[in-house]
Amino acid sequence: MRLFVCVFFISTTFLLSSFEKKSYISCTFLDTLKKDTLNIDTVGISKALSAEQRYEARKKQYRTIYMWGDNKKPVQINPLGGIAININKIYSHFSKIGKNSRRLQRVFENEYNIERTEALWKPLTLDLTNLKGDSLFYFQMYFLPQPGFLENASYYEKVEYVVKSMRIYRDSAAIIHERMKLPRWNSLKEQ
User: Fold this and answer.
1) Which of 26, 51, 81, 125 yields a CA-CA distance of 20 to 30 A from 15?
2) What is the spatial distance between Cα 158 and Cα 124, in angstroms, rounded to a whole number?
3) pLDDT tens, residue by residue, 133-147
4) 3-state secondary structure of 22
């Protein structure tokens, strides 16, 4: 984009006995427009939320997904007589947007369950193992138990699971580390 800018300067000078008027015209071409300042988005800083608080915040944020995914009790019987049919829930049950909404709800619920399990699992592994760094990280990720196990198990069952997992980890640490590493990315130049 080419911008044409003309600035007119009119100056008056007084000479000894005469009045003269001089006019100057200055024209420049600008190839680009530049901004003097940068706008930075506002950043909100909040304390770390628990898994339950994050799950509830996500429910509020994506409330339309929970509305579209609701297909429970489309038909209700009135105790005074009559039947009520909710057409929105029937549509939601058979529509593609309803199925996709229920699928996303399951993803949110799985993430919530995993976060709850990690909140119980990571302190337990720190207490019962002497691993540090990458070894601790790989152990925690590779042997992460099912979501319902840690909530329902007694302390001795948890200790038994950690001890068995440590035995397996010590026997095959190199293989576990190799499996947990990200694959190496080969650029087109290397091929």
Assistant:
1) 26
2) 8
3) 889 999 999 999 998
4) strand
